[in-house]
Amino acid sequence: MEGKEEDVNVGANKFPERQPIGTAAQTESKDYKxxxxxPFFEPGELKSWSFYRxxxxxxxxxxxxxxxTVLTVMGVKRAPNMCAxxxxxxxxxxxGGMIFALVYCTAGISGGHINPAVTFGLFLARxxxxxxxxxxxxxxxxxxxxxxxxxxxxxxxxYQTNGGGANVVAHGYTKGSGLGAEIVGTFVxxxxxxxxxxxxxxxxxxxxxxxxxxxxxxAVFLVHLATIPITGTGINPARSLGAAIIYNKDHxxxxxxxxxxxxxxxxxxxxxxxxxxxxxxxxxxxT
Amino acid sequence: MSKEVSEEGKTHHGKDYxxxxxxPLLDMGELKSWSFYRxxxxxxxxxxxxxxxTVATVIGHxxxxxPCDxxxxxxxxxxxGGMIFVLVYCTAGISGGHINPAVTFGLFLARxxxxxxxxxxxxxxxxxxxxxxxxxxxxxxxxxxxxxxxxxxxxxxxxxxxxLGAEIIGTFVxxxxxxxxxxxxxxxxxxxxxxxxxxxxxxAVFMVHLATIPITGTGINPARSFGAAVIYNNEKxxxxxxxxxxxxxxxxxxxxxxxxxxxxxxxxxALGSFxxxxxx
Lengths: 287, 280
Hints:
CATH class of chain B: Mainly Alpha
Largest interface: A-B, 68 and 77 residues
Helix content of chain B: 55-70%
Oligomer: heterodimer
CATH architecture of chain A: Up-down Bundle
CATH architecture of chain B: Up-down Bundle
Low-confidence stretches of chain A: 1-28
CATH topology of chain B: Glycerol uptake facilitator protein
Shape of chain B: globular
């Protein structure tokens, strides 16, 4: 279309770009601005209340997330049979629905990460500084430990005998399968986060951010449906760490590396895919 | 274009949308544009993720050892519908978020995409589907092979004709929803906020799965059926494969005709029969 500003100014793009018709909106001009990359290290943040407020928000969100989800898992495990509980699908809904609610609540405070893998992916895309990324990850892990701790406090005996909601590779699957499932699952989640928070996306939604959390929550729900039989679904290192620390059994720790390596690789791949292939940011001319 | 838009606004007070011009049948210029290849990559990745999550959910469910141990058929339907919602949301601005050769075919018939783009999308979708199911087989090899490979087949007790009919009507529901969600007039009514376009599309997929999982496992997406058949490579899956191409394409054709000729009355508009102003 005439006059439409091109995303990529490279030699191959000599022809005007046609707007792909499908579910795309027909925008005539660019009414969004790509935010500048965040500085790598920003000591000034440490003196701002909003920095600590964001960390506290991540702590509380992850605490509530682990409390609701692990308690749901415990309810399913202790039931006499699966039909008497909310079942595997109910567990998936607990994870996905809780992410939807919490991302909605904390999006404006901290960006609503609730997941070290999401924080890592956004850090790689230079959406936040190293200082903030590390602070968020620490607060998320602490929140997860406290959330799982409260669940154990409610029912210490049942908690220990029913697996503690910890992530382990299930019988019949190799560690390689578990790792692969975590990588692809986290890719789905972080890629959805990138799409939902993209500046261009906001412009297309006429800057109405009401539904960004919904696809993120759905992505978590869907990945849980797919991989609960394999690993109980980590795709969130804080969630896996919180349950592992409070449960504290050998087999939970044996597999624990999978739930950090897998999610971080998946997040890195999603960051690469979105920033380089979809948005082609490194190839844009600096205007 | 901007001049044309403002002119249109002047002469047609009250109508604040413009129907896009029909896409050219052959547009070789697209082949030299990065956004074309980016769209293909996006369709490939989206279909890969779609097949991985959905087929893994199917295999995980079938692996259950007792009643209610899996996510249930409802969970499988959610996996399909929810994944379409998420992926259409993510790729809408890149490629239009088709993730389904039947949707691409319907939009091609409605002249929303060129032939070159339509063929490119379909190939990317089929390749993505094969890779997605390949991931599932790699991660859960033994249960994948013993539990039907997530392939679409006609269930016992149903004839091929019944299955074909189910696929036709199911795909009609999906493609008709896609047309409604992407209609420029619809956008105008929604104040041009396309926030919810992916949601009804995802729900349409979800509800069709609720209805037809017992009949065929629900194809309504030739790439999905093709990917599972290729990786599972079982005779029965191939015997029935034609149903999962003919049915969806007929359904898409019916939806395109219904939306374009009856709801939007584009043929009648072209004739100018009902209005003196030929530019309407």
